[in-house]
């Protein structure tokens, strides 16, 4: 495979509030001295995540772009990736060359994954506060994302969850694919995450990273017709 010249696109997906934006901020802090970074966030109705990340000062504000999806998150990261693809291309045109663009999905349930046409690799973020049984509930992101993150391990004692057990169950559910137990307060775990990104980026640069699809979300329907209309689409 020829060596790519564009930035690697790294997707960050997972349920609402599991720490996707915080993780992106943590990665920017850990890697911005060695990699040229950009960020694209997806929110349904606002630019909240982009504004939050800009406020942290981890990157020059214009390197953080927001896509307002106006629909349920998988629409913009999987079904019609146009708005995100344009946002990444604009970032590269304005600030390129870049090494890695991190794309945050809007928070969704357990089923949303990125199209491999949008991202080269993707990580799926759960947190201990969502409950120790979430890993066992499974889904395409948990089972087959390139990396599973069990986040906020520092909170585990406060919510009566065994974080190590969650990480072990993640490993068991993933056929050897990697799992990182993460807390932004634990530098060793941040180092482990940053090393995974470094390795994945090196693979990408060599032309050896093949984007893989964790698989589609489960078929679903919205409960009320108005919801489907507001969100601009219906599901079979
Ligand atoms: N204790 C602890 N809290 C964390 C950690 N990471 C994130 N949080 C907190 O978790 C909450 C949600 O974090 P966000 O980064 O906004 O989560 P998100 O997944 O981006 O949320 P949405 O985009 O709304 O789905 C915030 O209050 C964070 O401060 C962590 O490692 N430890
Ligand atoms: Mg967020």
TrEMBL record:
Q: List each copy of the CobW/HypB/UreG nucleotide-binding domain by range.
A: 11-179
The entry lists its GO molecular-function terms as:
GTP binding; GTPase activity; nickel cation binding
Cellular component per GO? cytoplasm
List locations, semicolon-separated: Cytoplasm
In Swiss-Prot or TrEMBL terms, this protein is called Urease accessory protein UreG
Any keyword Cytoplasm?
A: yes
Q: How does this polypeptide assemble, per the annotation?
A: Homodimer. UreD, UreF and UreG form a complex that acts as a GTP-hydrolysis-dependent molecular chaperone, activating the urease apoprotein by helping to assemble the nickel containing metallocenter of UreC. The UreE protein probably delivers the nickel.
Q: Which PANTHER family match?
A: UREASE ACCESSORY PROTEIN G
Q: Where is this region: Disordered?
A: 208-236
Supply the source organism for this entry.
Answer: Barrientosiimonas humi
Task: Report the function annotation for this chain.
Answer: Facilitates the functional incorporation of the urease nickel metallocenter. This process requires GTP hydrolysis, probably effectuated by UreG.
Q: Which UniProt keywords apply?
A: Chaperone, Cytoplasm, GTP-binding, Nickel insertion, Nucleotide-binding
Binding of GTP occurs at: 14-21
Gene3D superfamilies per the UniProt record, alphabetical: P-loop containing nucleotide triphosphate hydrolases
A single BP term in Gene Ontology: urea catabolic process
Entry similarity comment = Belongs to the SIMIBI class G3E GTPase family. UreG subfamily.
């Amino acid at each position: 495979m020829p060596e790519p010249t564009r930035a690697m696109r790294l997707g960050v997906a997972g349920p609402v509030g599991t720490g996707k934006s915080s993780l992106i901020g943590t990665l920017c802090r850990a890697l911005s001295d060695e990699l040229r970074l950009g960020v694209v966030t997806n929110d349904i109705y606002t630019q909240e995540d982009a504004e939050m990340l800009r406020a942290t000062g981890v990157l020059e504000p214009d390197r953080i772009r927001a896509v307002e999806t106006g629909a349920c998150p998988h629409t913009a990261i999987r079904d019609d990736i146009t708005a995100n693809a344009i946002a990444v291309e604009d970032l590269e045109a304005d600030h390129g060359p870049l090494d890695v663009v991190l794309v945050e999905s809007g928070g969704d349930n357990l089923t949303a994954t990125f199209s491999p046409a949008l991202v080269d690799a993707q990580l799926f973020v759960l947190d201990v506060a969502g409950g120790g049984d979430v890993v066992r509930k499974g889904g395409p992101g948990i089972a087959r994302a390139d990396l599973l993150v069990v986040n906020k391990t520092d909170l585990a004692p406060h919510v009566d969850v065994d974080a190590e057990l969650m990480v072990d169950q993640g490993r068991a559910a993933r056929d050897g694919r990697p799992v990182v137990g993460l807390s932004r307060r634990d530098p060793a775990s941040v180092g482990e995450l940053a090393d995974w990104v470094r390795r994945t980026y090196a693979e990408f640069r060599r032309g050896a990273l093949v984007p893989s699809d964790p698989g589609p979300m489960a078929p679903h329907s919205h409960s009320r017709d108005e919801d489907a209309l507001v969100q601009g689409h219906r599901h079979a």
